Amino acid sequence: MQKVKKACQKCLIKPLNKENKTAEELFEWLMRTTENCTILSVFIATVAFAAAYTVPGGPDQSTGIPILNCKPFFVVFILADVFSLTLALTSVACIGLKRTASKACEDICKRVPSICGKKSQPTSNAQSPQQTAASDTDV
Known about the structure:
The chain is mainly alpha-helical. Helices cover 65% and strands 0% of the residues. Helix 3 (23-53) runs antiparallel to helix 4 (72-111).
């Protein structure tokens, strides 16, 4: 939210929407919703992963192959399980990458202020363009 405040003018931060919420309140709601969706996605992935190992009907004791192996509903179960596991893990990965990327962007802005529109302070041992030009003419 700090980046949003810096990027927006003050008159754009305080106005309320139709539900009488400020931009900061909406941002906090969005962050809570993101956390809840992450928890739900991890839970769905856990259940789908567990379902893959405890197949309906159980395995044949002598061969270990599922008893309902060639039944059409078993194929539907496996496909639905793979689909749910894939989508849940994809959503967890996307949310994780988004959070990681925003932290990386903040880190880059601290290291290279000119990217974020801030003027960088020259270091004490760096030469100014005039000093560099003067040293080039001395040679």
